[in-house]
User: What shape does this take?
Amino acid sequence: MKTVDIKVAGKPVQAREGETVIHALWAAGMAESVKTGCVGGVCGACTITVRFPDGRPGRTDLACLCTAEEGMEVFPCPVDPVPSVAPQASPNAGKLRTAYPTLDRCTKCGSCTSACPMSIPVMDSVLRMQSDQLSVVAEDFTTCIHCGLCRFVCEDRVQPHNMGMWVRRSIGASLGPLKEAVVAVEPEQVEREWKYLLEGNPTERINHARQFRNSGGIEE
Ligand code: SF4
Ligand code: SF4
Ligand code: FES
Assistant: This one.
């Protein structure tokens, strides 16, 4: 099988073509090099930054979804958690500002949006927080995996995803108790989605997982 040479934290690693950075590290006996959780693009543990040899701009990514490419340099980028702020019922921009006085520090640099592996429009959502469009903000952060990369790259320490989660939790805290949870499950749809995620070669499966996480659906 064809192999590619990459570096992880300055150490050479050989990966099979199409393999993710995490799987290459496992095969090389270097599992401890990058923090790892679900290995499915869900938990946000395996944050990295990546540089390419051909002049393409570097980027942030998840090591469990990032396919190794010849000459790629990978740097572990663990993001420390920050204390959470308790949600408040009936949230609005004023309450959000009190909870997170960092809200108005945003300089609209766009780094958070570029850093997000889930393609969430993070900067636009921060602007929506400022103008009290909190129901849209809650939608924006639906696919957030709490990796913290948007916070990590923000030089103004705005903490976008912590605010997004505060909004979602606060809207949730405003709902009355659910008397009956009725979940409509269509078995054919579930079957189609599992087939989509599990079939194909490893590269296709990774691409399907990434696409599914970003859009919440499958490509027909
Ligand atoms: S990285 Fe920070 S300052 Fe830049 S757009 Fe995002 S929240 Fe605003
Ligand atoms: S919004 Fe921030 S914490 Fe959430 S997935 Fe995107 S980068 Fe990660
Ligand atoms: S290990 Fe969970 S997102 Fe990569």
About this structure: The longest strand covers residues 3-8.
